[in-house]
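Teaching note: in complex prediction, the entire set of molecules is handled at once rather than each chain in isolation. The prompt given to students was simply: 'Predict the structure of this complex.' The entities are:
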Amino acid sequence: MEFWFTEKQTKDFGITMRVKKIHHSEKTEFQQLDMVETDEFGNMLLLDGMVMTTEKDEFVYHEMVAHVPLFTHPNPENVLVVGGGDGGVIREILKHPEVKKATLVDIDGKVIEYSKKYLPSIAGKLDDPRVEVKVDDGFMHIAQSENEYDVIMVDSTEPVGPAVNLFTKGFYEGIAKALKEDGLFVAQTDNPWFQQDLIRNAYKDVKETFPVTRLYTASIPTYPSGLWTFTMGSKKHDPLEVTEDRFHEIDTKYFTPEIHRAAFVLPKFVKDLTE
Ligand code: SAM
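The expected output is the structure of the full assembly:
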């Protein structure tokens, strides 16, 4: 008997994976949490039936959401992650010696608990002395922050359920307030095949809030459509102007200085979403 998990990426299209074992399944206070073992991608975290991260391809997303902003900022000492309870972005942030403190604010402590248990290669750095983990609503944390962070990364679920407020102009304005005068942020902004309005609206809201706004992409096989976007808003520093000497040695499997530059070169149908 074979078991397959299918994520419906639209009402008419999905991806399907053979499942070896269900490690844990529960309805938390905020979402349905499933941790499964798959034949192709290893252990996989699902929230509300959506693939969040897998042992095999997680490095792409976590490297691209972390290293692009951290190399763009000349001295990122104080960093905030909104969401990110699987710990992958924190693991990447800690590869930057300039970072003195990384704060993670995830609304659901169960994600942190079960990521530590079943995704040790991803969540293994959450107990690092430079890291502070808070279980709280990222929207409220941002609302209570002012002139505090050099870099903020919004590593949230899709704009449904607890994350719905994290894709609003008010949230981006709150981020601008929470950032220092030359701070910058990046948010994951879904895929350009099935979520064009989300990308268009997010880019427009960020552009109305920050003097520098950029969209970049990465290839992530287990995310809807396989092509993912990230939207950056910056008060001063432009990711396209990072000089060669800024890129210190770093242990990665996807990110390189060349990828940093190439990620901002957009296919026409994606670039059109920023016009
Ligand atoms: N990389 C994934 C993606 O791009 O969809 C996101 C992974 S991460 C596990 C998503 C996290 O966002 C979840 O742990 C969820 O609990 C968290 N989250 C959702 N809404 C939130 C909120 N309002 N404040 C803080 N964390 C939130």
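Point out the following to students. The two ends are 50 Å apart (CA to CA). The domain at 3-51 is CATH 2.30.140.10 (Spermidine Synthase; Chain: A, domain 2).
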